[in-house]
Structures are given as C-alpha cells and as structure tokens.
Write a structure and sequence with these properties.
alpha/beta
C-alpha cells in the first residue's frame, strides 16, 4: 500500500488542500497509456498522512471540526515529540485511525562506534542519547504517549557525503558510490526484533488482513513520553517493553523488552493459566551486544 505525506503551512494544517488532494487522488482519470487497471486502482487507493507537523498538535482538532478532513486523512502524522493530547489517543483507540511518527531520526553515526562514547550516560555501550537503544526506546514511549504505530525514518538510506551540514543518521549507508560499499547498521537487527515476529502494515476495512495490534495495557515506556524526541530511558534500572498480539485470537503474542539500565535485571512474565505460544526479544546494552530473539 502506498501512502503520501501532506505537509502544508508550518504549524497550521490546511484542511482545504488536504480535501482537494484526497478528491484528486480518488477521481483522477488522466493516466498515461502504460498504466494498467491495477496501477490505476493502486493510485486511487493512495493513503494520506497529515499533517506532518514539527511538534505541533493541530491536525486532530481540525479533523474533529471538519468531517471532510476527517474522512480524507487515513493516518495522523507528526514528529519530534513522543507525547500528544488525549484526543490523539482516542483517534487510535476509539476511531481506529493510525497515528504515525512521520519523521524520525535513525541512530546517529555507526552503531559500532557508539561504544567509543565517553559521556557518563551510555559510555562504552550502544545505549545513551541518540543511540541505537534510544531509537528503540522511543517506540514504546511514543505508543504509550500518543499511540504511534509507525516510525518513518528520516532518512532510512543515507547517501550524502561526510563533512556536509548534518552528521549522518540512517539505517543503511551508501555514501561511497565509487566503491559500491554499503553499510548495514546493526540497529536493523534491533528493529527486526519487532518486524520479524509480527505481521505489520495497513489493515483493510474489514479488519481481516491479519495485522497484529499493539496492546496498550501490556506496553510500557520507562522514561515516559515527552515533547523532546531525544529524551529516552534513563539509568534508573527500569525498562520499556512493547507487546503485540495476533488479530486472529490464536493467543500468539510477541513482547520486546528494551533495557537501558547499568545493572542486570531478571524479569518474570506471568502469562496466565492457559499455555500460550510466546516469543520475547530482549535488547541489552550493558555489553554492547544484540542478543538473539528467544
């Protein structure tokens, strides 16, 4: 499924533009001759993510006051904060609208070099601010604080040369075209603790596509959501976790624990009297390692 982000005036979503664009997508007829019927149908079903505000929280009030905007927006997107108002959470829990982190940072620099840090928090590990574990920790915190279920990396693939305005931050680096060298950051393995164990993607109108759901009552953000995208779990010994469950009532579920503490934790999970097929992944930064899912 294809989606497109709509970003209008900074800090002020334009409802008329959103409605115009949604109508144009739905009713377009002037296609190139090489477009197949399948391609035309896919074009007509492009999803709209709005309004990609930078810390702003104006799109949901606009949707509540304008039914045309409400109908046009398939997913609510904003970025650079993990919290929101209760109305954003209601959009997910009650209205079943998806809420996205529409522009999020990947890990800064190569994860292998994170262990060279000398800062008090995260020294010698892959934890700490703007680290691989900080990235993973933002997922449960953003879900608890605003029901985010999609994290769009900006960028996912980086190809800009070293020494320009921004320090590189991506999942896959391809900045040396003359050699063909590609660097796959180890944070990809951390993300796979979620993506390899659950079916993710767009659900259909009848909720029969088998997409797994995140369970609010079984998900916890240790730091807590905030309006600062770089604030994540501290060194207080607590841990975040996220639980996803299959939609077919087979009692399959998957929990990811994301741990930042300086001391080792032993956790016991009570899954009730019935035997459940369970799978859990643990991410531990104390030795700078990425354990296998188990």
């Amino acid at each position: 499924m294809t989606s497109t982000r709509i970003r209008t005036r900074p800090g002020s979503p334009d409802g008329e533009i959103i409605k115009y664009f949604a109508n144009a997508l739905k009713n377009e007829t002037d296609f190139p001759s090489y477009f197949t019927e399948e391609a035309k149908e896919a074009y007509h079903n492009i999803k709209i993510v709005a309004s990609d505000e930078n810390k702003g929280l104006k799109i949901v009030p606009l949707m509540r006051s304008d039914s045309g905007v409400y109908d046009a927006v398939d997913a609510i997107g904003f970025h650079y904060r993990t919290n929101a108002t209760d109305d954003y959470i209601k959009m997910a829990d009650v209205d079943d609208k998806e809420v996205w982190y529409s522009e999020g940072c990947a890990t800064f620099g190569y994860s292998e070099l994170q262990e060279n840090k000398t800062t008090e928090y995260g020294a010698g590990t892959i934890g700490g601010y703007q680290s691989p574990l900080a990235l993973l920790d933002s997922l449960p915190n953003a879900f608890v604080g605003s029901r985010r279920t999609m994290y769009m990396f900006q960028p996912a693939i980086g190809s800009f040369y070293e020494g320009i305005q921004y320090g590189h931050k991506e999942l896959l680096s391809a900045r040396d075209p003359w050699s063909g060298y590609i660097h796959y950051d180890p944070v990809l393995y951390m993300l796979s603790h979620i993506t390899k164990f659950a079916k993710t993607g767009w659900e259909n109108d009848t909720n029969t596509n088998g997409i797994w759901r995140v369970l609010p009552n079984a998900t916890y953000g240790s730091f807590g959501s905030s309006d600062n995208e770089h604030q994540t779990a501290g060194i207080n010994g607590d841990a975040s976790y996220m639980t996803l469950a299959a939609s077919d009532k087979t009692k399959n579920f998957h929990r990811v624990h994301q741990q930042h503490p300086e001391r080792e934790n032993l956790r016991h999970q009570d899954v009730g009297p019935e035997p459940l097929r369970r799978r859990a992944a643990y991410l531990d930064h104390r030795h700078g390692r990425l354990p296998e899912a188990r």
